[in-house]
Amino acid sequence: MSADIIVRVEGVSKKFCRDLKRSLWYGLKDTAADLLGGHSSNGLRPDEFWALDGVSLELARGECLGLIGRNGAGKTTLLKMLNGLIKPDKGRIELAGRVGALISLGAGFNPILTGRENIYVNGSVLGLTTKEIDSKLAEIIAFSEIDDFIDTPVQSYSTGMQVRLGFAVATAMQPDVLLLDEVLAVGDAAFRAKCYERLARIRDRAAFILVSHDTDQIARVCSKALVLDHGRERHLGEVEEGIRVYHDISRPRHHTSSFEQSAEGTIASIASCDDTVADGGQFTFSISLELPALVSVADVRVVFWGDDGLPAFDAYTRTQGYSLRLEEGTSKVTLTVGPLTLKRGRYAVSIAMLNRSNNLHLYWGDRIRTVEVDGPMTGAVPYTPPLTCLSITAEP
Amino acid sequence: MRDHPLTVYTPESPLRQPAKFVRDMIADLLASRELAWRLFLRDLSAQYRNSVLGYVWVFLPPLVASLPFVYLNSTGVVRMGETPIPYAAYAMVGTIIWQTFVDALNSPLRTLNAARSMLTRINFPREAILLSGLMQVGFTFLVRLVLLIAVFGAFALEPAATAPLFFVGMLSVVGTGFMIGLLLTPVGMLYSDVSHSLPIASTFLMLLTPVLYPVPASGFGAIVSALNPLTPLVTTTRDWLTTGHVAHLGGFILVSAVTVTFLVFGWVAYRLALPHLIARLGN
Fold this sequence. Notes:
The structure holds two protein chains of two kinds.
Chain A: E1 5-17, H1 20-35, E2 48-60, E3 64-69, H2 75-82, E4 90-96, E5 99-102, H3 115-125, H4 130-144, H5 159-172, E6 177-181, H6 189-202, E7 207-211, H7 215-221, E8 224-229, E9 232-237, H8 239-249, E10 259-261, E11 267-273, E12 276-277, E13 283-291, E14 295-305, E15 311-316, E16 324-326, E17 329-337, E18 345-355, E19 360-373
Parallel strand pairs in A: 3-7, 3-8, 5-6, 6-7, 12-19
Antiparallel strand pairs in A: 1-2, 1-4, 8-9, 10-19, 11-13, 13-17, 14-15, 14-16, 14-18, 18-19
Helix pairs in contact in A: 3-4, 3-5, 4-5
Chain B: E1 6-9, H1 18-47, H2 56-75, H3 87-114, H4 116-119, H5 127-154, H6 165-190, H7 193-208, H8 220-227, H9 230-242, H10 249-281
């Protein structure tokens, strides 16, 4: 293994069994095969499936790999194999150096013992000697911010407090390879920020693998991404592309046409609607209307919803200082929003048309369509206005 | 970079590299001592912290197990045969030996099941769990020794001159119980049938073993006692403490040798089985 690469995974596969009784039986058979020095079967037995299928990767010191995929994609299975908890069924894993894993925080915490006692227990479970723990005790307590409770039984700690203590102990062991399985999701924002700061500090001398569903977190922290889908590698390499692939996989999460209605006596529907918008382009749509009477002051409101369920923008004629006059009878109203400079991705669209005099909806469609927006692929914020350099002048 | 050897994980059986396997076994055993001690202290201090009676719970099992027989024997309902020392003391010595055997028998499965969440999430020298269990067995035995001394005092009995060998006997008793328990763990961690049947089996076995009665001289009981490998263990250990006249020394040595052999086998099986067990146990 070359000096820089400290994690090497070659064509690693792992099979699991859907049926519990069979799974236990296979476990015994595999143990027996190992005892006899033989080889367990390479293929799938009844009820088995590949939880991880031919995954390869390499990681050098200083690199951080973001492991993304939907639930059951094989992320934790891969981490457990890297940590040596379970054996691969195919392939080979090589690791150079001390492996630290936070596959679950607080494993080994005894609820009846105090925080201080648990630091010693947890520390030695992770391979620290009593002397090493002694020398790091103050730092661990300070980092976890639980000074007042350090001599209180851990069972009276909040989840967040347990997470802080666990993270502080695990990172104190200064691993060469650190495996983090969604453990930071529990802490509050301030503590998470502190954790990232700490990770950044030990980053030069370690390689991280971070499992998270928070793609913004991945984008911020990781230098590489591995996207898993049903145990197979869908992408390995650039983070932004990985996140795009992940969003592709998780497409069904986006729900549309959940709600559509209009006021009494009015017949309204979306007549046409763009389904793609270029970077900096316009989103154009039209509404077919059949009104029983004149509406002299009408408003239209368009909201784009991002993947995270939060609004990306809210365009409203009323706040923009004008309104529409809609005649009695049948008509077609065409509107356009833009230029749109949004993060690349899929957005759900809500469209409303209101009568300003009584605030009733002439038309109301909540997340009725999905629009594919092309754009830059950076950051957590959907709005990406163009940034232009006006001049660069030499100063004396 | 710290000097760390390369760790390799492959599907092959670790037994294909026997030299490395043995090296790893010894290295892990050495590395697990400190952790085992800490886990032992943790369990010890946590065990009775939320209990009112505390360490009384250590004394109760052998007391409760032997008292009914002492009572039955004293009323004459059941005759236990001639014992070299007063029956109550004889029964107490027997049950303390037997309870220690049962503790050792249950220890591997009990400690491993208690450490399930740790085993499936953290990699550490797996021997630590077993060692801390053994330490608990030893500690409980030492506490019960106090009970034994009290009984000897109450009956004004003198231990035999061979009494120091009693501890050698206890070592073999613990080793045998632990060996059986260890061999059962790969199956026992997967199938709860094992942990369900252990208490039933050990109660039944106690009645088949000369724990509360001397070795029968004739009849069906004599055949069962002669065939029961636990007979020489229990009787030799007890004889060393009470009379010094040992009747089954040959059997004792044979059983001890078999125990050592199977202990090593059980340890190998345990190491090989754990990754498979963890994969099947899930989170």
